[in-house]
Amino acid sequence: MSEETVPQQGGGEARPKGLLQQMEELMAALNADLSALDADLQAAGPQRSAHPAVEERGVEPPEGAGVV
Q1: Using CA atoms, how far apart are residues 18 and 6, in angstroms rounded to an integer?
Q2: What is the pLDDT at residue 43?
């Protein structure tokens, strides 16, 4: 049972979407949302790089944690 077929509604000629196609569409939508979020964050300007409690303890953030 690798892929189940869904009965067509409305008598159209369109095939039901396969799981791979659905995943690709979801990933494309997720990438678009993440790009928009990144643009919003970049437009907000420089912010503090670490949570205040982390700075008080003198703990460095992990490498690659978004600190430029």
Answers
A1: 10
A2: 93
Distance CA 7, CA 16 (A): 8
Cα 24 to Cα 18: distance, rounded to the nearest angstrom: 10
Distance CA 47, CA 49 (A): 6
Yes or no: say if 55 and 44 are a contact pair by the CB < 8 Å rule.
no
Structure token pair of residue 20: 């791979």
Residue pLDDT, tens place only, 23-54: 999 999 999 999 999 999 999 988 666 556 55
Q: In angstroms, what CA-CA distances link 12 with 15, 17, 52?
A: 8, 13, 58
Per residue in 52-67, is it b (16+ CB within 10 Å) or e — as a string?
Answer: eeeeeeeeeeeeeeee
